[in-house]
Amino acid sequence: MKVTVTRDELLTALQRVQGVVEKRNTMPILANILLEAKSEGLDILATDLEISLRGFYKATVDECGAVTFSARKLLEILREIKEPEIVLSVSETNVVHIKAGRSQFKVMGLPSQDFPVLPAIDRDGLIPVPGAGILDLLKKTLFAVGDNDTRYVLNGLFILVSPQGQATQIRFVGTDGHRLAVAEQTVQIPREQSQAREMKVIIPKKAAYEMKRLLEEDETEPLLGFTKNLLIFRKSGLVLTSRLIEGNYPNYQQVIPKDSPQKIAVQREELEGGLRRVSLLSRDKTYTVKLTFSRDHISLYASHPDIGEATEEIPASFQGGDTFSAGFNAKYLLDVLNVLSEDQVTLQMESPLSPCLIREGEATGFKAVVMPVKV
Q1: Is residue 321 part of a domain?
Q2: Is 145 a member of any domain?
């Protein structure tokens, strides 16, 4: 195998796969990438057995072949060299020779046959989806997905794709049991490419983050599809696949409060700034802040037994209810506010112990629910 490739092209490929490459030493070869030199270019693959990413890159191939070697080490080398072109060649003993200008490296590799076989991907059945729209849905829900929750399904992002006449509704849901985020959009998909039936899947949080990273690169329209146990995401010569999480997602609709006239309207930036300042003196790990809702303002209060206390009042409009107080994890509220773009935010609570529904101005495509805590 002998290939000439630009440093920028190879660096882009290595940066893309870093989130997929397995960091733990359960199987040493999972810390490697697979390079396959073909007559038309260079295929670069990475997998952790749950998620796989394949990309095709421009290269001048003098000799076809394949090898697998350390993704981290190659990235470290690429970051240090400045030559615009790199020559990769592989010996019969799987030693990878890297030449860039006056620099030369020899890195031990492993046979390509030892690399896990990735699932075959069929382009049929994939639907085009708006890249900016999917990126927005991911940003507004990923923060609420659980981390290492014993209820395994909460460690994934729930996706619902349902036909709506001539259009298709796509809904993303994330929850960790303490907060919930629901975002949806209605998109126009050509009839011959749209799904004829409703689809419900749960994708791993890691796969959702990789989708988000790829969508942030450019506005190329991706293709999205699902098989019985696999997510398929194609975009600009890249193919991301991920196993789906098996199980039944909880009935999230049950915890979303019904619409109520008892609402608190507040400027997003003022609430966000107040929470950041007051929470500096909240208890470690819990970030508890007490919010008191009055007719024309919200009072924020936090205290720490070893440090002190902080208070702040911000203007607000409270309709349809009496003054009351409730405690919240400030970090959970800030995570919601951070993904919103409208100037005004509406909070809705029935009582100090009921869930708080957060909506964005007059927009109807996003809802967040944060559970209160004792203060």
Answers
A1: yes
A2: yes
Domain with 347, as residue range(s), is: 257-370
Quote the tokens at residue 209.
Answer: 């983050």
* Residue 140 and residue 172 in contact, taking contact as beta carbons nearer than 8 Å: yes
Q: Which helix or strand (DSSP H or E) is residue 79 part of?
A: helix 71-80
d(C-alpha 75, C-alpha 12), whole Å: 10
Q: What b/e sequence results for 164-200 when a residue is b if at least 16 CB atoms lie within 10 Å of its CB, and e otherwise?
A: eeeebebbbbbbbeebbbbbbbebebeeeebeeeeee
- Quickly tell me which residue has 């004792």 as its tokens: 374
**Residue 119 falls inside a structural domain:** no
Q: pLDDT (tens digit, 9 = 90+) per residue, 36-91?
A: 999 999 999 999 999 999 999 999 999 999 999 999 999 999 999 999 999 999 99
Instruction: Classify residue 10 by its DSSP letter.
Output: H
Same domain for 266 and 356? yes
Map residue 255 onto helix, strand or coil. Answer: helix
Q: Distance from CA of residue 180 to its chain's centroid?
A: 15
Choosing from 215, 236, 252, the residue where a domain stops is: 252
Per the structure, the count of domains in the chain is 3
pTM of the full structure: 0.91
What is the three-class DSSP state of 332? helix
What's the CATH code of the domain at 342? Answer: 3.10.150.10
- Identify any residues that bridge with 43 across adjacent strands, giving them in sequence order: 36, 56
User: Over the stretch 219-250, which tens digit does the pLDDT of each residue have?
Assistant: 788 998 888 889 999 998 899 999 999 999 99
